[in-house]
Amino acid sequence: MTAKIIDGVAIARQVRVGIAARAAMLKSHDVLPALTMIVVGDNRASAIYVRNKVRACGEVGIKSDVIRLTADETEESLLSRIRLLNEDPGVHGILVQLPLPPHISVRRVLGTIAMSKDVDGFHLYNVGGLVIGETVFPPCTPYGVHKILEHEGIDLEGKNVTVVGMSNIVGKPLALMLMQREATVAICHAKTRDLAQYTILADILVVAAGQPKLIVAPMVRTGAIVIDVGINFLPGGKLTGDVDFEGVRRKASRITPVPGGVGPMTVTMLLENTVAAAERATGFRPAAESLFPV
Ligand code: NAD
């Protein structure tokens, strides 16, 4: 068997067409969807991510602003800036690019962003909402994985899904979303004993561990769908995921590549959340809704 390669770039392009149409509709009602990003310090990866987000916003008609602060920005000053943005009706989404310098509490910062503008979906309210399926802004990477599965027409009900990685931004929220779809979800992490005994059971295997070649073909069930969230840079700079792509593609039925799989969808779901924030703020969409109804 050779897996179909899921083209995340093509799916993202298609989803973005719909987002651009919604942004245009808002503009025709004099609402310019707007995202403000805050970057503290000069992390190289953050600079690349933010640049990509700015470009993506421009492509779909979202106004983006970047507030760049030096690494010695105090926590109080940063929180004050966020509070001002919370009050600004011209700003629909607020994103604080992580990581932050160690003297700033990530939890306090994320908790200060207004729930209605929390387009990254990291506020405790939105995280908690996932438990009961009423999240207003699903976090972008797991939302992107969910969208890929939806786009591929994969029915999750009753499926065995193994999620490798249990971070707050990827593994845990994704597991909650999949459970909401009535999948049977196993969550594995660095302390899991004999990872393969869980991965081999998976109809759908999602890997978000940050370990190149963590998943090799013998760990994958024949015909499984494999979604690789990992982003790793090998010595020499080559970008790779967490899955041994060449080996696993011969056993899986579908697989996402890295790059070109989940990555483009993460940014796309940020655009989706930002337009949704603008729609809610202006009454074009209900303030609270169940995005993953059972
Ligand atoms: P993290 O470091 O916060 O969490 C990693 C998780 O993987 C932890 O739960 C850890 O226990 C688990 N893990 C680590 N080694 C393992 C092993 N050997 N066996 C089983 N589990 C193991 O990372 P994160 O922020 O969740 O990101 C995970 C990966 O996804 C990284 O490569 C990151 O760059 C990538 N990522 C990609 C996107 C995207 O848009 N494609 C977005 C976010 C993160």
Characterization of this structure:
By secondary structure, this protein is of the alpha/beta class. The chain has 2 domains: 25-120, Leucine Dehydrogenase, chain A, domain 1 (Rossmann fold); 140-263, NAD(P)-binding Rossmann-like Domain (Rossmann fold, 3-Layer(aba) Sandwich), CATH 3.40.50.720. It is built from 10 helices and 11 strands. It has helices at residues 8-28, 44-60, 75-87, 106-112, 124-132, 140-151, 171-180, 196-199, 245-248, 262-281, and strands at 4-5, 34-40, 63-69, 93-96, 160-164, 184-188, 204-207, 225-228, 232-233, 239-240, 254-255. The strands form 3 sheets. Strands 1-11-8-7-5-6 form a 6-stranded parallel β-sheet, covered by helices on one side. It has a 3-stranded parallel β-sheet with strand order 3-2-4, sandwiched between helices. Strand 5, helix 7 (171-180) and strand 6 (184-188) form a beta-alpha-beta unit. Helix 2 (44-60) crosses helix 10 (262-281) and helix 6 (140-151) packs across helix 7. It starts with a strand and ends in a 13-residue tail after the last helix. The model has no long low-confidence stretch (mean pLDDT 95). The structure holds nicotinamide-adenine-dinucleotide.
